[in-house]
Amino acid sequence: MGALSIRKVRKSYAGVEILKGIDIDIEQGEFLILVGPSGCGKSTLLSMIAGLDEITSGDVFIADRRVNDLSPKDRDIAMVFQSYALYPSMTVRENISFGLEIRKMPKAERDAAVDRVAQILQIEHLLDRRPSQLSGGQRQRVAMGRAIARNPALFLFDEPLSNLDAKLRVEMRTEIKLLHKRLGTTIVYVTHDQIEAMTLGDKIAVMKAGEVQQFGTPSDIYRNPANLFVAGFMGSPSMNFIKAKVCESGSGLGLEMESGGERFAFPAVNGEGLAAWKGREVIVGIRPEQITEVVDSHGDDPRVVRQSLPIVLSEPTGPDTLLLVHINGAKVTCRVCPDFAGVPGEKMALMFDLSKVVYFDPSTEQRIK
Amino acid sequence: MAKPKITVGRIALYAFITYCCLYYLLPLTVMLFNSIKDLNELKAGSLMAFPTQVTFEPWVKAWSSACTGITCDGLRGYFWTSVAIVVPAVLISTLLGAFNGYVLTMWRFKGSDWFFMALMLGCFIPFQSILLPMAQTLGKLGIANSVPGLIFVHVVYGTAFTTLFFRNYYVAIPDELVKAARIDGADFLTIFRRIILPISGPIIVVTVIWQFTQIWNDFLFGVVFSSGERQPITVALNNLVNTSTGVKEYNVDMAAAVIAALPTLLVYVVAGKYFVRGLTAGAVKG
Amino acid sequence: MQAQTLSPPPRSANWLDTLERILPKIVLAPSFVICVVFFYGFIIWTALLSLTPSRMLPRYEFVGIEQYASLFANDRWWLALKNLAIFGGLFIFLCLVMGLLLAILLDQRVRAEGFIRSIFLYPLALSFIVTGTAWKWILDPSIGLQKVLNDLGWTSFTFEWIKDPDMAIYTVVIAGIWQSSGFVMALFLAGLRSIDDSIIKAAKIDGASMPMIYRRIILPSLRPVFFSSFMILAHIAIKSFDLVMALTGGGPGFSTDLPATFMYTYAFTRNQIGLGAASATVMLGIVLAVIVPFMYSELRSTRRG
What we know:
The complex is a heterotrimer of chains A (369), B (286) and C (305). Chain A has helices spanning 42-50, 92-102, 107-121, 136-149, 166-183, 194-200, 218-223, 228-233, and strands spanning 4-13, 16-26, 31-35, 57-62, 65-66, 77-80, 154-158, 186-191, 203-208, 211-216, 240-249, 252-259, 262-267, 281-286, 291-293, 304-310, 313-316, 321-327, 330-336, 347-353, 358-360. Chain A has 369 residues and is α+β, with helices and mostly antiparallel strands.
């Protein structure tokens, strides 16, 4: 067992099952992300780890200790909230040392802890201010300082960056990652933002409707999504899904495609599992960055195909231009270099790198391996 | 905000408002003027006439020698009786209301919301429905016709309102504040003392002012549950005004009315905006 | 963000933690007792008393609705009810009108608005006894309004309502409105101020005139304020006791009796506890008849959202 173990945890409230059996294990020092759309149960799970909510069934172990029956203050945890939850009537210094004060730490030690934390977070100059006098980013730091000062076994973050504006969010994200590197603490972090999930986490648990859809490293989840939901949720712009019939093509299997009236077939790369699907429709998943303008560096790689397709829409984002095409009736986004972007209404030669394509069963939505 | 132009409409507006103001100020000015008039001048003239000779004798009389029923010691004693009732009653009912509001918003448990509704409904019961049993109960508890008895009654029936005020105020405090405190290790009382109470200033002021006004101005409980010297000033005032021995001394009556009204009026003048906040806080439900 | 109530901390073997769990309930306990015993318990007690033949002291024998029968055979009670209808109806209606009117006036960006508002509101800080006393003399024909106007030359002016058994109840209305309309004004003013400005701007751009805007947009959005004001005013009207005692003492005779003064007189001065209890229970019934439909409609409308 490692730093945190969640075993078969369920939660019901007023007859509704909110969490349907969660199993997660992480080691000491790992950064766990709980990510998913609103209502998936991630915040509830966090509350239960914290001890703010009762566990209907199952067990939670923190540092090899079963904590089901312990109140929050006995679980050796600290939490950073979305709204920071700083005590309005206390100064920053008092806010940070409050938890230590309750635990009867002597004043000298408390002051030392506050100073240490303030230095790490660069908030020494704010120690005598009240929360109302701080900006959003400063309050966020103080909230983290309050958590760090306690030096707990487990840090819990509940969507801490959601209340910040976009630019600040990116800054703070980096700071949190640096802090994690520096302090080596075990962290459980809840967010609905998949970019935060990808950049911060060592392990990600993608949740939906009270269940863990997939648990793994960021690259794992990105490259080998377990089902349609995970594939579509992670990655921005999200993965393209094209319904295509499996046919025979050359020496192997192919996928029937049609765009702008023209029919063509793509080879079913990595499609060993598709043998049983000949003649039936599967969902092909291909990420926008795998559809680009024609680039010669791929040479004659058979997994890379070229096709000219009519462009429907063009969205320049600065670093790339997103082009929209229709394939098999689906909206497909392509990521091209702005210098080579085609014009809507005209055809453009696109290159499809099929080496990373994934296939899904249309009825179960699971990945076809 | 652009200044509105001076039109006929605006003039009419101000004229009407002034007229209304006079209607509202009338009784107060009548009381004040007549409380410093000589009785003969009052009877010769009328209530609205401005006093030509100012005398404070009616005030002195109202305070120390006017007749309120069988005793003729003025309002003096009853004033202090009211103070003795109001101060503890306000403090206790406010404290209870604060704790109740705290529990009802941050430590809710099964049935606590129903309890709140039941308590709120209690704000609306006509007191006539509880007078008789309360009279019996006060007798059995041995505090009938006493200051502690009146304090008790006012606390019991004031708690519904104070709870409403505090609850409506605390409901706006984010849940996460208490969650953070619990994770920090604070318990029920510590959270109240160190975190909630320090930010309760505004609602405490509103509640205290509201309760002070209600209890000081109460008449029903005073007249039903006390007699003789233990009566609050409102009852004494009514007795004074309605005593029909001898000559009607209108000026003394007026002075007595002003004395009785002074504390709450003063509170209003000094802290009026909190008073208004109290009204809208209590009346705007939920 | 999901609005979540805080669950109680997980069960624990530690007795200190158990104390922590039940502490909130302990804190609420006194008020719980108050509510159960002194509100609802006493109401039931009074209702029970109304079914007994108690006179000076309670006698707990059951006599059915005898007291109610004699209550409704009592002319004075019928007069009290009639007065309540007259007083209540006029009081509520005129307070709403005055309050709304004053609020609209004050909302017109008047100078010294705060000062004027405090003039309209100060009557609330006064006891009904003080109010009653002041108005008693103002309305007294021999020294009050009548005399003033007579002295000023208008000798034919009479205003003896307060001495006239048929008209005295209307004097209670006058004094009551004076006391309470400021409160209604404060509520309406808050309601007016909370109306989103952009809605009014949109209406103006659409070409609506101010009266039309008032009628079609502003007044309808004040509906909740109308309702809460109505409820509170109704409550004040039904409870009215202090004002009548000070202004007219119930008189002349008992022509300005209201159920509240009737109850007090019979229960506490005439030693007719059973009858008094019956009158109190009827008063409770009247209050419930007003409040319950209102609460019900409020609950339904909030559920529909």
